[in-house]
């Protein structure tokens, strides 16, 4: 089985590609902007006809799109998260219409949740900022493509190599800088929000199952930890793994917090459909993910 992974040199793509390589008989091909990728592809700028040639050359049985942007101005986000999936679908229809497409979406597409409510795939979508809005546009392009395509709406992935652009990676970097100094102070934003965290290894397993599952599959599947966890627990859990002896301070005025999450105090996905369609459920706890993040150091 030939599997093309777009964004294979990124955080999520790296884990996904590594997991897929363990499939018996799988030939995993990496694609992305990095010089280390087998196929140089930038979905934000590539023309559909050029991408179609790349896809024809790769001749994939499945394509996994892990490429995208989590930060930047609205134009950058739109190019990566909305234009990119649309171009990919157009190229696939021309060059590899039988290939299954697995696209990584985001729980941010749902927008603010209601406390103690688990969000299903049929819930209304109301993203609060450009990130969620552009990810939702990408999902629309995939689900309307007519291809054998599945969108995995991912919660907050945590694990080895988490980038500093997200809170877990940023806190890990701050803790490494602080070291064992008992006088160190970590000044962070409001940590009272609840999020659905998922170990990145469980996400990679969900992708593997989606690639290999017999069709047809639901067009959208939630992939999360299945629990709403206070962000504060993530910070203090990382501090425990780091042996941090200093002080953690929260401030609602901290400008280093996540802009796109500022107006979302509760978010938790119902992952029942993924269990029923894929036989998937999280195998790792949040503490497992935090341990892997702290012990793993840099990106995989």
UniProtKB/TrEMBL annotation:
Residues 3-224 form the NAD-dependent epimerase/dehydratase domain. InterPro entries: Epimerase_deHydtase, NAD(P)-bd_dom_sf. It holds the Pfam family Epimerase. Belongs to the NAD(P)-dependent epimerase/dehydratase family. This is NAD-dependent epimerase/dehydratase. It comes from Streptomyces doudnae.
């Amino acid at each position: 089985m030939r599997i093309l992974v777009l964004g294979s040199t990124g955080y999520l793509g790296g884990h996904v590609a590594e997991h897929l390589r363990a499939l018996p008989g799988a030939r995993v091909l990496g694609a992305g902007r990095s010089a280390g990728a087998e196929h140089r592809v930038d979905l934000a700028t590539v023309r559909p006809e050029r991408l179609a040639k790349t896809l024809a050359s790769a001749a994939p049985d499945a394509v996994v799109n892990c490429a995208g942007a989590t930060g930047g101005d609205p134009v950058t986000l739109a190019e990566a998260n909305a234009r990119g999936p649309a171009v990919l679908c157009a190229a696939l229809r021309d060059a590899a219409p039988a290939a299954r497409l697995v696209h990584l979406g985001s729980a941010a597409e749902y927008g603010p949740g209601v406390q103690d409510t688990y969000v299903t795939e049929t819930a209304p979508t109301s993203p609060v900022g450009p990130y969620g809005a552009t990810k939702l546009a990408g999902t629309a392009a995939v689900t309307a493509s007519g291809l054998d395509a599945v969108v995995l709406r991912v919660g907050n992935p945590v694990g080895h190599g988490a980038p500093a652009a997200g809170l877990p990676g940023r806190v890990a970097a701050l803790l490494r800088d602080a070291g064992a100094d008992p006088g160190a102070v970590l000044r962070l934003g409001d940590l009272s929000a609840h999020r659905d965290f998922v170990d990145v290894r469980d996400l990679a397993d969900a992708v593997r199952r989606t690639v290999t599952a017999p069709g047809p599959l639901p067009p959208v599947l939630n992939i999360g930890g299945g629990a709403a966890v206070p962000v504060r627990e993530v910070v203090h859990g990382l501090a425990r793994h780091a042996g941090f002896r200093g002080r953690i301070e929260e401030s609602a005025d901290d400008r280093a917090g996540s802009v796109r999450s500022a107006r979302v105090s509760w978010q938790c996905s119902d992952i029942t459909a993924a269990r029923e369609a894929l036989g998937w459920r999280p195998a790792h706890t949040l503490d497992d993910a935090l341990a892997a993040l702290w012990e793993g150091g840099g990106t995989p």
